[in-house]
Amino acid sequence: MSLPPEKASELKQIIHNHLLRMDIHGKIREVLAETVRDDQGPAHRSLSEADFLRALQRRGIIDDVMKDLHFTQVDQHFAAETRSPPKPATHFVDKNITKLEKTNIDPCRRYLYFQVLGGKAFLEHLQEPEPLPGQVCSTFTLYLHFRNQRFRSKPVPCACEPDLKEGFLLEIHRDGVGEGSKMADATTLLSMCDPVHLVLIRTDTSSETTLVSSYFLDWRTVLSLPSGKTCFAVELMGVGINQQRTAEKERLFLVYAKQWWREFLEIRPSHQSKMVKIFAQDENGVNRPVCSYVRVLRAGRLLESPRQAARFVSLLALEKAPVVGGGGGKQEQWCTLMAFLCRGKGDCEDHATLLCSLLLGFGLDAYVCVGTKAKGTPHTWVLTRGTDGSITFWESLTAHRYLHQAIDPDAPPLAPQPKPSSPYRTVGCVFNHHTFLANCQPSDAVELCVFDFQNQSRWKAMSEEALKSVCAPGSTTSLPPLPPICAPSLDPAAASNQLELEMRYLVSEHRKDLDLATVWDDHLSYLLSSALSAYELERCTGISCGNEEFQDAVRRAVPDGHTFKGFPIHFLHRNARRAFATCLRSPFCEEIVCCRGDHVRLAVRVRVFAYPENACAVWLMFACKYRSVL
C-alpha cells in the first residue's frame, strides 16, 4: 500500500530509532566477523549478500526486528484508518509494570519519550546501607501525569542515589472533536501548555506513604532543539518550600481579594474572627485560591453514584500535616489532587475538595464548607443543595450524610424547632470551582445558618469573573492539571484469601500460647460472607439489607444447645498483624478468639472491597460456636 510522504518519513524515522535502540549495527558487525572467520579456509570463496542475509536469519536477528516492529499490526492500523480514525486516550489505565513493555507506535501521532536516568543527592538517605537480597526496605516510587495519562515507576530502594531508571512513552494528541487522529504540527505542540507532573512518594516498611516532592516540568524546551532530544537535571524540592512565581493574573486577583476582604470586614467587626479562607498553601508552599482545589471530576465507570464516591473518599486515610513545635496550632497544607491520590492519605481539606469535585461530576450543586466542629476544632466538609432547597452535609472522612434544617431565632418560644443533627458548629465560608461565598449573617453557628446563597445580606460573594481568571482550567500555567481517577489493580478475591489465611494462622498461634486447640468450621466461615457484604452495602448506600437471610443461615448452622458469637470490624489497610492486634483490644473479640468450652468451633471471614486508586474497605468477622454448659 502507498503512504503519504509525511507518513512514510515518519514511519522511516520510527524504524530507524527502533534499530538504534536494538544496537542493530553492533549485532551486524558481530555476525559479519563470525561469518568471515568461518569462511576462511581451503575452500575460501567471496562472501555474497545472500550468504550474509542467511547468517543474519540463522542468528534470529531478522525475526527479532520484525517481531518487535509489529509490521502486521501497523499495516492493519493504516488499513483501518480510512474506516475509523484512531482517537486519543480518554481514560486512564494504570501502567503497573516493572519495565518498559513493547508497544505499537502509531506513525500518525506525536509521542514524547520521557526517560528518567536515576536520582542523586537524596542526602537524608546518605547513611542507609545497601539492602540485602530479600530484605524489606523503604522504597521510592515516581508517579507521572501528562494530558490524561498516568504512569508510575517500579519501586526502588531508598538510597542517596536511588536507581530510578524508567522510560515513559507519552502520547501527544490534538484537542477537539475529530482532531485526535491528526498529526500535531509545531504550532500545536508549542501551544500545549500542559506540564508533566512528577510526584515522588516514599513507602516505608510498614506500607506508610510519604509525599517527598511534587514538580511540574515544562517539556516544550525539547521542541527548539534540532535533534529533538535533550537531557537535563530536575531539582525535586521538598514539599513546603516556597516556589511561588506570581503572574500578572495572580497579582491582580490578590489586589481584588484584599479589597473584597476590607469590604467584608466593614459589614461587621466580628467578621475578623470568622473562618473565611480565600487562599491555601499546597505541598510546594505555593499559595493558591481555595477554589482552584475544586474541579468538576468524573470517574467514568469507576464510581457509579454520589454515595459510592463518598464511600471511596472516606477510605483514603486521614493524616494531618505535621506541626513543628508546640502551641497546639494546625499546620496549613492542602495537597494537589495528584499528590493526594498518589499518597493515598491526607487531611480533611484534601478529602473535602476531592469529594466536592466528584459530586460536581455527578451533577450535584456541591460546595466545600470551612468552619469548626466540636470544641472549636477547624474542619472542612461538603454541602449539597437540592432543587427543592434542601441542604445536605456530607462528611468526607466517614461518608455520613446529615440533613440540615435551620433553627428560626425569631420563632415563638413554644414553637417546635429542629434539633441539630450534624457535628458541625460554625461555618465561615463555602466555595466550589467557580463560587466563593463568605457568611455575613449575625451568627456563624451552623444551626442558625440559612444557606440561601442568592441573598446578599446573608452571603457576600466574590466576583465569578475574578475567580475564573485564576481558577478556571488553563487560566494560569501554575494551575495543576486535573488527573484522571485510576482503576484498582488489586484483586479483591486474592487479597481476601491471603488476609484470611494470615488471620487463621495468627488465631491458631495465639490460642496455642494459651494451650487451647483450634478447630475451624469452614461452613460457618463461608456463611459470614453475606453479613460482610451487607455491611459494605450499607456503608455505600445507607440502606441495610440481607440481615434476615444471614440470621436464618446461622440458626441452621448452629445446633440446639449451642451458642453463637460474632464480632465484625472494619479496616482501611491489609496488614494482618496490625489488624489482629487491634481486634484483641476489644473484649468482645478477645472472648471469641480465646473461647473455652465444649465442642468449640471457630470461624473467620475476610472480605476486601477494592475501590479506585487501590483504596480498599476490609471487613473482618470472627465467630465461634460452642455447646452451652450450665
UniProtKB/TrEMBL annotation:
Indicate yes or no for the key word Cytoplasm.
yes
Give the family from UniProt.
Answer: Belongs to the CEP76 family.
GO terms in the biological process aspect are:
regulation of centriole replication
According to its UniProt entry, this protein's organism is: Dicentrarchus labrax (European seabass)
Q: Which InterPro entries does this UniProt record tie to the protein?
A: CEP76, CEP76-C2, CEP76_C, CEP76_N, CEPT76/DRC7_peptidase-like_dom, Papain-like_cys_pep_sf
Q: Main localisation, per the record?
A: cytoplasm
Q: Which residues form the CEP76 C2 domain?
A: 104-246
Q: What does this protein do?
A: Centrosomal protein involved in regulation of centriole duplication. Required to limit centriole duplication to once per cell cycle by preventing centriole reduplication.
Start and end residues of each Centrosomal protein of 76 kDa C-terminal domain: 490-627
Q: Tell where it localizes.
A: Cytoplasm, Cytoskeleton, Microtubule organizing center, Centrosome, Centriole
Q: Cite the CEP76/DRC7 peptidase-like domain residue spans from the record.
A: 332-462
State any GO CC term.
Answer: centriole
Q: Which UniProt keywords apply?
A: Cytoplasm, Cytoskeleton
Q: Which residues form the CEP76 N-terminal domain?
A: 10-69
Its recorded name reads Centrosomal protein of 76 kDa
Q: What is the lineage of its organism?
A: Eukaryota, Metazoa, Chordata, Craniata, Vertebrata
